[in-house]
Design brief:
Blueprint lengths: L1 H8 L5 E3 L25 H15 L2 E3 L3 E7 L2 E6 L3 E4 L2 E3 L3 E3 L7 H4 L4 E2 L2 H4 L7 E5 L3 H11 L4 E5 L9 H9 L3 E4 L2 E8 L3 E8 L5 E5 L2 E4 L3 E3 L29 E3 L11 H24 L1
């Protein structure tokens, strides 16, 4: 959305493709308090504000999924479900998606107690016992959020310490109804028509314990979805697009911004910064092509 604002502001005809809900992972963030100039706000509200800016700027939005990008002379062919679009430059900013646990029962109970968004689904389990799996910022934040809704929250992490920010760690440890289970993994999710239990395995003793829970919230990181672009741009071993801090890929005219590119820090503020950088680079490229 930031990239679209900048390219549109520079006078370029801009079309933003979005396959689902605008905002990506931002809309599933319960609380944002470190975005400069905004103060405390929900991710959904921040995404709405950004979307409102797009509308005011006259940015075109196509609710479709990009399937491939191919160079055709001095233009690119962007193929979607509903058709094909020609453009002089492309900014890939498709983010990343939540990583799956890969345990028995996860697929069967997805949408029936297995969730990847506490903000979206937490209210369905008000007053019940649930568990959160993960040890990064997302897992800690979701555990704290759920502790205000649910009677009890098990926080399950495969390692012996959290990788999230200290402020989130303090919030988790301060909550009376969050039980932290280090060195454990979820081996199975089970139940009848809905989740009724989760089996967890100790990495230290190998002992398997059954937790009676109504939901399992998965927050074990993200994975990129860039296979569709592998014939066009170079990807890292982890599947992220190789692009520098200027967001330029090895292909002139194609830029990568945000969580989709190989980088060390993945935050809202770095995503918006990438959007601005990629847009300005794209504007420079398009103008150079016009002058050539």
């Amino acid at each position: 959305m930031t990239a679209a604002l900048y390219t549109s502001g520079a006078g370029l005809s801009t079309l933003l493709f979005e396959k689902a809900m605008y905002g990506g992972q931002l809309i599933s963030t319960s609380e944002v308090e470190n975005y400069p100039g905004v103060g405390r706000i929900t991710g959904y509200e921040l995404a709405q504000r950004m979307y409102g800016q797009l509308e005011c700027a006259g940015v075109g939005i196509a609710y479709d999924e990009v399937l491939s990008i191919l160079r055709d002379g001095n233009v690119f062919r962007v193929r979607c479900h509903t058709g094909e679009y020609l453009t002089r430059s492309v900014i890939i900013a498709n983010g990343a998606s939540r990583r799956l646990l890969g345990c028995e029962g996860e697929g069967r109970f997805t949408g029936r107690g297995v969730s990847y968004c506490a903000v979206c689904d937490g209210n369905f389990f008000k007053g019940r016992t649930v568990c959160v799996v993960g040890g990064g910022n997302s897992a800690l934040e979701e555990a704290v959020y759920l502790s205000g809704i649910c009677s009890r929250v098990y926080l399950i992490h495969r390692r012996g310490s959290f990788s999230g920010e200290e402020r989130y760690v303090r919030a988790v440890t301060a909550a009376d109804n969050i039980d932290i289970l280090f060195h454990h993994t979820v081996s199975r999710v089970g139940g009848d028509d809905r989740v009724r239990f989760a089996k967890i395995k100790s990495a230290v003793t190998g002992e398997v314990t059954t937790l009676e829970v109504s939901a399992v919230f998965v927050a074990v990181g993200c994975v990129p979805s860039n296979c569709r672009f592998s014939d066009t741009v170079s990807l890292s071993e982890s599947g992220y697009i190789l692009a520098g801090e200027d967001c330029r890929t090895a292909v002139p005219g194609i830029f990568a911004a945000g969580d989709t590119r190989e980088k060390h820090v993945r935050q809202i503020v770095t995503a918006t910064a990438d959007g601005g950088s990629a847009a300005l680079a794209a504007v420079e490229y398009v103008r150079s092509q016009r002058d050539a």
